[in-house]
Amino acid sequence: MNDAYDLVIIGGGSAGLTAVSLAVQLGARVALVERHRLGGDCTWTGCVPSKTLLKAARVAHQMRHADHHGLAPVDQEVDLKAVMAHVRDVIADVYEEESPAALRDEGVDVFLEEARFLDPHALAVGDVTLTFRHALIATGAHPSVPGIEGLDDVEYLTYETIWDLEVLPKRLLVVGAGPVGCEMSQAFRRLGSEVTLVSSRDRILPRDDAEAAHVLEEVFASEGIDVRPNSRAQRVYQEGGAIHVLTDDDQLVGDALMVATGRRPSVEGLDLEKAGVSYSARGIQVNDHLQTNQPGIYAAGDCLGGYQFTHYAGWQAFIATRNALLPGASDGILDRVPWTTFTDPELAHVGLTEEQARESLGDEVWICRWSMDQVDRARTEGATSGFIKLVLQKDGTLLGATAVAGRAGEMIQEWIHALEHGLNVGDLAEDIHVYPTYATASMKAAAEARIMQLLSGTSGQIIRGLRRLLR
């Protein structure tokens, strides 16, 4: 195997590209195999296009409500074709840095072909056989489509195909109230569609803090999004140009239907059996070091079937590449993965929610909540919906944090750092924060939690006693 690659990476999405970058810096001989196009979901159908569309929708919303800021409102009809052209321009700009030509300039052998394992040390890539010392599987995931009666007979959209729209639907039905369903519902409502959001659960965003999700539901209602909780789609049919969705207790009619019910690991078609790699429909099986049952083959990201976030996939790919190419091994599986849903306001989370903490610790849990209507920066921007909530033990140990605010995705970063490094809430209360920023809410919440801690129990009795003596 003298001519073998040090690392062959299967999948050119966020995980694969992160692995390439590290492997090249380590001086490894690297091959990257991608059957479709480099960039993966994040670049083409996920993070980049969705956040670009959300920004366009926010601008339209702000123009329509400019009178809230002392300006004349402008309500113009949205040309979705032009908006989607802008989305594609942003995608193209991002893609330039991760194109095959750019990677080949860095010394990476790029193969735009399907890959199939021949054995634990070789891949068939088109007409070529690649041998390797180590391989990293980073094939991502694809839309999970539920078995709704009649769905296969209608034209429906997923997060992969919604970008092909060029005419704004007058009535958009969205089945699935997770992050993708919520983001697209708000975006299309702000662009001008009538939107109905169908949730099979009793609320939207069921993995998030219930109180935070409720704030977002109130915002959705104020913007005219029709949220249908506890409503499961039973049957779908198309009649003329209209799509009908029959739920448990109603019949919904729209001009377009988006199905946003999650994602499934992409593990088919790799001939993993020939490599002896254990997997199932739920994903590829790995140990804590992201190593499959074949010592030289690793896997990372969405194809594992765990948390499916771009930042987690990239982080895992870095760890897997480090473990494959360097001595020793680092853990690549996290119990605590942060995330943000990029609605307006954003909803960000790390660690335990209040519900999870109370379920395991009961009355030992303290909650410190600071409302955004007490934050001057939020007031200046007219964005006072939301709060930051700290979930604590009574000794000040941080268990989790949730922020629902205009800059929640940025605000959550210091709480991620605090949890990762075992910081006490008092440590953050003493840090100065720039004024006026949204992060002031974090400082205020931490300070209030610290005061609560000092004034409780024996320490509180001593402090109050000293105050009486000093009067």
If you had to describe this structure to a student in words, what would you say it looks like?
With 471 residues, this protein is an alpha/beta fold. The chain has helices at 14-25, 40-44, 47-64, 80-95, 100-105, 179-191, 210-223, 272-275, 310-325, 354-361, 376-380, 408-411, 413-420, 425-429, 440-454, 457-470; strands at residues 5-10, 30-33, 109-111, 115-119, 122-125, 128-137, 141-143, 171-175, 194-198, 226-228, 235-239, 242-246, 251-254, 256-259, 263-265, 279-280, 283-284, 297-299, 339-341, 346-351, 365-371, 387-393, 398-405. The strands form six sheets. Strands 1, 2, 3, 4, 5, 6 and 18 form a seven-stranded mixed beta sheet that branches. Helix 3 (47-64) packs parallel to helix 6. The relative contact order is 0.11.
Task: Please report the number of helical segments.
Answer: 16
Give unreliable regions as ranges: none
Shape: globular
Oligomer: single chain
| Structural category | alpha/beta
Radius of gyration: 25 Å
User: What is the arithmetic mean of pLDDT?
Assistant: 94
Quick recap:
By secondary structure, the chain is an alpha/beta fold. Helices cover 35% and strands 23% of the residues. The strands form six sheets. Strands 1, 2, 3, 4, 5, 6 and 18 form a seven-stranded mixed sheet that branches. Strands 19-20-23-22-21 form a five-stranded antiparallel sheet, sandwiched between helices. Strands 10-9-8-14 form a four-stranded parallel sheet.
